[in-house]
User: What shape does this take?
Amino acid sequence: MTHFRKSIATLLLSLVAGAALADATLLNASYDVARDVYKDYNPMFQKHWKAKTGESLELKQSHGGSSKQVRAVADGLEADVVTMNQANDIEFLADKGLVAKDWTKKFPNNASPYTSAMVFIVRKGNPKALKDWSDLAAPGIQVILPHPKNTGNGRNTYLSAWAWALKQPGGSDAKAQEFVGKLLKNAPLFAAGGRDATTTFMQRGLGDVLVTFESEAELIAKEFGKGNFEVVYPSLTMQTEFPVAVVDKVVDKKGTRKQATAYLEYLWSKEGQENAAQNYLRPRDAELLKKYAHFFPAVKTFTVDEVFGGANKAFATHFKDGGTFDQIYVAK
Amino acid sequence: MSANKLTRATQEPTWVRYTLLAVGLGFLFFFLGLPLIAVFVEALAQGLPIYLEALKDSETRSAIWLTIVIALAVLPFNILFGVAAAWAIAKFDFRGKSLLITLIDLPFAVSPVVAGLIFILMFGSQGYFGDWLAAHDLKIIFAVPGMILATLFITFPFIARELIPLMQSQGKDEEEAAISLGASGWQMFWRVTLPNIKWGLLYGVILSNARAMGEFGAVSVVSGHIRGETNTLPLHVEILYNEYNAIGAFAAASVLALLALVTLVAKTVVEWRMKAETDMLNAELPGEKTS
Amino acid sequence: MSAKIQRVLPGFGLALGYTLVYLSLLILLPLGGMILKASELGFGQILDIALGERSLAAFRVTFVSSLLAASINAFFGLIVAWILVRYPFPGKRFVDALVDLPFALPTAVAGITLATLYAGNGWLGSHLEPLGFKVAYTPLGIVVALTFITLPFVVRTLQPVIEDIETEVEEAAASLGASRWQTFVKVIFPAIGPALLTGFALAFARALGEFGSVIFIAGNLPLISEIVPLLIISKLEQYDVLGATALAVVMLAISFVLLLVINALQWWAANRHKNSEPLEVAAGKAKAGEA
Assistant: This one.
């Protein structure tokens, strides 16, 4: 019955905005697989903050697709901080004036406390001997990936393949587009999202290779067993960032700037970094990266800024309507 | 007249009956039975204790409650509108009736995502009423009221559309007779109309209820996904699935499937009460069995 | 139909007034807001968006698969409704309750489950693929998902109407020498025809907008298995709310016209049935003579 009463109370309270219950309440709007990271991080920070200031904080989480979450914040979801997996999502909030224009400078490392890399998941024993991006574009190989235009996971795969082709001897944008086109022809389907791609590959047995985040590989092991697949690191892949920002418009209204900033800063603390590593995300802290080296083999990576001149530009060139993805499919 | 001949013409030949049963049940088995079984197989993949454990999760429980609260909040609005609309449309002739019915159908054709989007366009901070709401410190979207609105939109046509063809096929003779015998409008409604439409109304309620509880797309757009606060069961299912918690996801989905089976209970109860009533009537008025 | 007869029954003004006000506030106002938003783009630009190669292909896939799904449901739904009302069989209540399942199950769960069932190694896919039927990740998969999602509509609109058919009419037809088939075609079918069309229209409308289940089984390949709601999502992913509303408005306009045609047809069929009723009239006379 308490749940019922709570729901009614929520119903009534939600009619009145900003009815804060604790000393201060923070809402963290985040991407969908970040739950494990913040489930452990939030109590850690609450303890830290209580010890430091004596203030008890209530921390609330909202998870969903990255750009969907950001749209919700732009439309009035009162999140104090956003912790996303795509930089162009936060750029959108900056354009709307909700986040500072120089948000990447507000925190170290391009405001991304941890990173990951795009990797190949192949069947046990790697029967098709898939080693690098070129193997994925070979005839007869089936590649499983989420929709390159509509999902962050798919976009990262697309850009990784593009960057690899670009960096080959004699590489050019035209050649990269041709290469990515060949690779996409090997996709029998575009999955609805990262998780759906995994299910399609692992459970439904479709395809020879799945392209996904390194961090996802450990989650796959948790659900489908470690021995059922192998992880392959290509010769060059994208270092994916997980940018964070304080939502100025909300913290100024609620008066929570101090807490919100501290909440994000603490992600770079030893505890915060170790928590990321334990969730299979590459910490920025070099010592910890070494300590957890068994999770994180050395791999040659590029960043979107280096190769594509920024997340916004990459998005506009490749994934907007009429971009290279559409050209590959429509202008045959 | 031989009873045999009568039966032959009021019932289908045996082979037809069996063929229809086989086709109908086969269709249901492949399209409904198997998916349902598959959901439970996934939910119980690691045994009953793990299944029950998944349901004990406090976020899952609060999602279940929120789902039920929204479904209950939506119900009276839908019943009132459904009966009013069906009464006007089925019992009276007026111009533009087909247009009105089509407008009532329209929410079905609107993609749930778009259904959510239209409320964002109205009440979002960049929407038409956004500034006004912010000035008055009122929250509609990313809060429960917005989720109720989206659910109302999605379930809008059900009861009306269930009742219209039924009331249409029943005609208006019985109601007209009641009025000409001096019954008031309300008496006619409670004594004649309501008993006549109760099955249709029940089906409509059950359908709109199932849809209200199962809706994902529209609610997802306006919910804001705040854990333990604006997270309904279907939204929670998606989150669990994306977190590689398949057992939790399918366990939560199985709860929704079980809620759908409430039909069974509701219908049975209504049938019992009806049977008791007719039995009583028959005892009082022998020979007046049919009207 | 003269106006005087209509007004014997009370409540027209109240019922219609309430219907119109509620409809305007909940449905027309938000949809109007959406159209207003889309109109910021101008007619030419909206057409450009709708007539692109990918959009056209998506419109074709969406409408064809929705039409197929609604037709499958009209055919099997009629059989299912008939056996559920008329034939006794063990487990009937359970089967009856099962019909609502597609509404209660979150659409994503339905999509995931169906994809698992119909994938090459799934319970059904492993039997179908050797026969040359690839369902999962093909346009056929879209039809399967839409059939599942819209299954309750035809069954639930027909059930109360079939329950309402008075067996005396059938008996009378039989006593006049009609065969079972003739009775069905001349007496039963005209009575349930309008409801069947209603169910078809609702299933069709709902199928057009469905998104959550389809993306998991469709394969989502551009020009082949992309549906319009997916393109709308794609626009939203690009933060192109205007483009998304433009597509939604085009979709809405087409659905509106199609539904209007079906509803006009349905109303015409219902009235024709009501005004002629040769067998029922004959049956009534025959019955009077018998007594």
Observations:
- The radius of gyration of chain A is 21 Å.
- Chain A touches chain B through 39 residues (CB under 8 Å).
- Residues 24 and 296 of chain A are 37 Å apart (CA to CA).
